Structure formats: C-alpha cells, structure tokens
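Hey, resending since the last one bounced:
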Amino acid sequence: MMIHPTAIIDPKARIDESVHVGAYAIIESGAIIDSGCKIGAHSQICGSVDIGKGTIIGRSSIIGSEPQDTSFDHSCKSGVRIGEKNNIRELTTIHRSTQNGGWTHLGDENFLMTGSHVGHDVKMGDRNIIANNCLLGGHVTIGSGSFLGGGAVFHQFVHLGDLCLAQGNSTITKDIPPYCTASQKNRLIGLNTVGLRRAEIDPATRAEIKRLYRAVFFSKIPFSEALDAINDEKLHKEASGFLEALKNPSRKGLCFPKV
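The structure tokens again:
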C-alpha cells in the first residue's frame, strides 16, 4: 500500500494493500477500496463507499457525501457503490442515497470527466462517458454505453437509455429513449447511429430500430396508437428494448423530435 504521509485514513476503513492514496486525501470509516485503485490528492471518501478494482478517484473529488435534499435525515445509513475500472476525474462529486440502506450505484468502466456531479440514488450502468460539468439530479437512471455532453443537465428521476447521446449544454427533464440523440431542451434529433455501430449492433437490427423510430415518432396517427400498431413478436432484442422504453417511460415522460 502506498499512502502519502499527509493522508488521513480511519483505521476502520478497509483498503487493499495495493491501493495508492495521494496527499491530504481523507478516507472515513465504512469505506471499502479494492485492489489497484488510486485515490487522488485532496479527495474525500465519505463513509460507506465501496470502490471496485482498478478504479481511479481524481484529485479533490468527494465521494459519498450527504445528498442535497432539504428533507434528508442525517441519521440515514446509506452509501455509494462503484464498480470496477471506473475513471472518475478531478472535482467530481457523487452523493449517497437518501434511502435508509440505499445506494447510489455506478457500474463498471464509466468515465466521469472533470466537474461531473452524480446526485443521490443515481443508478448508472457500464461504459458511460459523462463529459465535463454534467449534472445528474437525484434518482436518474442511466443505461450503458451512453455519452452525455459537457455542461448538460438532467432533471431528477429521468431515464437515459442504453447508447443514448445528449449534446453539450442540453437541458433534459424527460426520458431519452435508448439509442436516441437529444439536444437543447428535451428535443430528439435522431438516432445515435455512430454509437450503434461502435457497439457492433448488426445492420439488420440498426435498420429495424430506425424503422421503429420513424413509425412511432413520425406517424400520422397519435403516438399511443402508433405504438399499439407495432407487432413486436419478431423484433430483435435491441429493437424490442427500444419499443419497451417507449411504452413504459418514467413518470417524467419522453423527449420527442420536432415534427
């Protein structure tokens, strides 16, 4: 274990012997840090935070601090769980859950750039890229493989589907369906075709998702009727997931294209 002499580590924290801890870092009781992790200088690991193998916590990041919720009960026992091989850059904040026994959760291999904020009770999948100064409100759910552009903001409780893309400085208060690109305020501007190809979604499935997008969002009949008119029995898995997200959005509703 390589620990800078100025770091402050509670003896009840569980830290693998291979972990690097930088100058003036603070690690509190309840923290569990697995092998190969690097905790940057001046960063803080607050309370019940589980960090998986090979994760990097950047300088001056604060992980596991109390949520920004005026009704929060400070005696609540909650925490943050972070999977393996995440790269969490400097000045990132990740807040613990507001629910007793609850967790804010990040999966594996996510890249959170400088100044990102992950609010309480966020559930994030794998391999997402969260660009500089993105703000994720409480209870946001993110799939896997998404890209959220710099300075974009996301209202609490929205769902962001697999391989979705939000352009920089977007304001999102409704769900972005899987594989879709959003811009400005809640505006869909098409499919994330580059992301679909990079994820090695085969051409037939990509074409099927494209047909669904057009059939639902650009139909001459009402949106709900267009959804009901689609026969989903023979759809590929990804196309079926896209249709399911449209049929069952969060309580915030869906982003729509301009028609």
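The helical segments are 193-198, 203-217, 223-228, 237-247.

Sorry for the duplicate.
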